[in-house]
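Blinded run. Sample ID left blank on purpose so nobody reads anything into the name before looking at the predicted structure. Input follows.
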Amino acid sequence: MKRVHVIVRGDVQGVGYRYTMRIIAREAGVSGWVRNRHDGSVEAEVQGGAAEVDEVLAWMAGGPPGSRVDAATVTDAPLQEQSSFEVLPTA
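Blinded prediction complete.
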């Protein structure tokens, strides 16, 4: 089990990134959250089995059609008690 914190930069707001990510994450069976940030980036935390987290990270590097990912910064995060994947309000 692992949890990662991710900041994605590029054209990632207003293109369905968060809501598509929620679908991808739920299909992969991971928990966590995703939200827009005021600086135009998207921030997320993803927790689950290593293979499942890596699957979601691979999707995040490309994003949905219409998006452009310029960079994704991934750091380890402490595990949390969480059972679902949610879209949170902008931070």
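Unblinding after everyone has recorded impressions. The chain is about 25% helix and 40% strand.
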